Amino acid sequence: MVYxxxxxxxxxxxxxxxxTGFNPYYCRIQSALDDPLMxxxxxxxxxxxxxxxxxxxxxxxxxxxxxxxxxxxxxLCGTPIATGYxxxxxxxxxxISGFLGLEASIILPSCYQANNGLFSSIADxxxxxxxxxxxxxxxxxxxxxxGCKIKPFLHNNMDSLNKILKNSVGYNNIFVVTExxxxxxxxxxxxxxxxxxxxxxxxxxxxxxxxxxxxxGGSGKGxxxxxxxxxxxxxxxxxxxxxxxxxxxxISGKVNLIEYLKYYCAHxxxxxxxxxxxxxxxxxxxxxxxxxxxxxxxIMWEYKFKIAGHLQYLGYNICNSEAPITSIKSGNSENTFxxxxxxxxxxxxxxxxxxxxxxPNNCRIRLIAGANLKEESIDKALxxxxxxxxxxxxxxxxxx
Amino acid sequence: xxxxKKIIKIIEENIENYVDVSPDSDLVEDLxxxxxSILMIINALExxxxxxxxEDDFKDIKTVLNIIEKIQVNYPQxxxx
Lengths: 400, 81
Prior knowledge:
The structure holds 2 protein chains of 2 kinds.
Chain A: H1 2-9, H2 15-20, E1 37-39, E2 42-46, H3 59-72, H4 80-84, H5 87-100, E3 104-108, H6 111-122, E4 128-132, H7 137-144, E5 149-153, H8 158-166, E6 174-179, H9 191-201, E7 204-208, H10 223-226, E8 235-239, E9 249-253, H11 255-264, H12 266-269, H13 276-314, E10 326-331, H14 333-345, E11 348-349, E12 351-353, E13 363-367, H15 375-389, H16 392-397
Chain B: H1 3-13, H2 35-49, H3 64-74
Helix pairs in contact in B: 1-3
């Protein structure tokens, strides 16, 4: 009886899948991030991965990963604080800090863990966390765990943030949390203004630069470089599984913050250390980005402008994006699945976002073209976009 | 300004989309509100009326009118502001 009650709680709402005949999630990929990508023994154009610079399947990165395994083995079978912290771990942390121009960093198994672990380590009930309305789930879950007052502000709206900061008194610490590049539509936070407002009101800025690191800024150093923010005093987190092409997440900032987190961030202290293969891949991946960012990002941007321009020309309603992300406004969840299915049926893999990842009826289909894709694949994708909008149902779906 | 007009103004200021808000507006369907939008509205109501809102009171709200009624019934001190 108790078990039945529990099972009922686990029932999934499969109505959209049933109505559309399509489930875009957990598709079984049969290859590396090559061009083409293999799914169900068919060739696909991958416009879904966050492999911005196209280095996830780079032979130099893979060799560095193999070399690390040869030297250190598959795993150190321990947490970083115990037996999992190899010299390569420290080397990569220092390399990332140097790349960003920040004092120190720690590497965690994912940025989700970084964002979750951060707030429960540094904030408590007497604090206030102010957060952008559209911030990533990992940040939201992280701050909810603290149990303190949360005040969201309107997306990228500095009047809204200013008003909240002005009216927030009596808190121990105030944190202002945002993303750099918003992953569902590619808008970029006016982070320099946020840092200035934090300075004015004595708040601490926290930025998640997951879709900015290795993507924006003159040499790929992310939001701080992109917006000319010097001597950043706040907290910085990012994923290393997107433009960096490997996996893991970082928290970076002042030395005293990082030293504290090394002992008090439970998500780091009690997780098995990031494995040598990942550290080896990151070590080489950073070098490739430092050496080749200009040429790789040039291709990435060319593809982005080609895709966005063509979609706009065809009449798709796309989001204003300043990043190499192109998102189609697709209305409700069902429309979004139908449109994603049309792409899928034409061998294009895209990322559909439905609620709760986006607000209700503001669903998106996101397209990211990595620099590893062939130009002919991009042209083929443009042909598919032209083909499917000829259908009247599709036309109706993309006019939101 | 009457209480309902004040509340409607607060809601207009705390949703992302520029749409006309009326007492009949459905928070999700018409205004595109999500849980953070509701939290923004609650925070703004607390500030405007100098009250402390129990978020559980707002769990079953669907329309703007529901918010107006909740404030009128559960937080009568707002009427005097």
